[in-house]
Amino acid sequence: MGKDVIVACDFSSAEAVYGFLDKFTGETKPFVKIGMELYYAKGPQIVRQIKARGHKIFLDLKLHDIPNTVKKAMAVLSGLDVDIVNLHAAGTTAMMEAALEGLTRPDGTRPLLIAVTQLTSTDQQSMERDLLIHKPMDQVVLHYAETAKKAGLDGVVCSPLEAGKVHERCGAEFLTVTPGVRFADGDKGDQKRVMTPAEAKKIGSDYIVVGRPITAAADPVAAYQQCVAEFVD
Ligand code: C5P
């Protein structure tokens, strides 16, 4: 898969999601991210329905449990025929390897599997105080990325500001999927460290995850097309 814009469909009802997706007529079928809120509200059926409409799907459920449980859960998610799924690298190598095993279908195919390193809501202070991790955040993030790569994963979710360093450490093929994207003239909302789609392209992000700059735009289709023009074309 090449560079693409993934739209974060952070809606709580099926009506709201379809109201949004229906604006895209014709050939354009954005790659969408479905997160916990929509999945827990509407279940696997909404994933199947959106897939049946022709969208690629990043199912952002961030699994983290004992290896056997994650392996079995991943086998179920693999049956949904999504394109990308994720987990927490903090679950350790054994959990990541088990996840890959569960995800791989009998014919050898599987969705891409990427890891969350440290959540961007975790800062240095809370990592030291609550997790007793005393290394600098950027070292921790790169170490988790490297561990994910060694376990056989395809990439990580990270800030666009970290994408270049992740590629340096883990190679150009290791995917960086980056939220925290805003248009140059746009509202940052609650995102603190942001980049424009053009900057994310320059620094080497493979996929940008964009929510409100598209979903809350006066013209969502135009906003999506602007993202694609800046990031992909
Ligand atoms: O609306 P916005 O563009 O901020 O949406 C970004 C999406 O990426 C949201 O679904 C958010 O939960 C997700 N995300 C993030 N930062 C992370 C991981 C995920 O913003 N570190």
- Strand order in the largest sheet: 1-2-3-4-5-6-7-8
Using the alpha-carbon principal axes, give the shape. globular
Percent in helix:
40-55%
Rounded radius of gyration (Å): 17 Å
Biggest pleated-sheet summary: 8 strands, parallel, barrel
Q: What's the number of extended β-strand segments?
A: 8
In total, the number of domains comes to 1
Question: Which SSEs are present, and which pair or pack?
Answer:
Blueprint: E1 4-8, H1 14-21, E2 31-35, H2 36-42, H3 44-52, E3 57-63, H4 67-78, E4 84-88, H5 92-103, E5 112-116, H6 124-131, H7 137-150, E6 155-157, H8 160-170, E7 175-178, H9 197-203, E8 207-210, H10 212-215, H11 220-231
Parallel strand pairs: 1-2, 1-8, 2-3, 3-4, 4-5, 5-6, 6-7, 7-8
Helix pairs in contact: 4-5, 7-8, 9-11
The protein binds cytidine-5'-monophosphate (C5P).
Describe the structure in brief.
The protein is an alpha/beta fold.
Could you characterize the architecture of this molecule?
- This protein is α/β, with parallel strands linked by helices and 233 residues long.
- The protein has one domain: Alpha-Beta Barrel (TIM Barrel).
- Helix content is 45%, strand content 16%.
- It is built from 11 helices and 8 strands.
- The chain has helices at 14-21, 36-42, 44-52, 67-78, 92-103, 124-131, 137-150, 160-170, 197-203, 212-215, 220-231, and strands at residues 4-8, 31-35, 57-63, 84-88, 112-116, 155-157, 175-178, 207-210.
- Strands 1-2-3-4-5-6-7-8 form an 8-stranded parallel barrel, surrounded by 6 helices.
- Helix 4 packs parallel to helix 5 (92-103) and helix 9 (197-203) packs parallel to helix 11 (220-231).
- The longest helix is centred in the middle third of the chain and has 14 residues, at 137-150.
- The radius of gyration is 17 Å and the shape is globular.
- The mean pLDDT is 95.
- It binds cytidine-5'-monophosphate (C5P).
- Cytidine-5'-monophosphate binds next to strand 8 and helix 10.
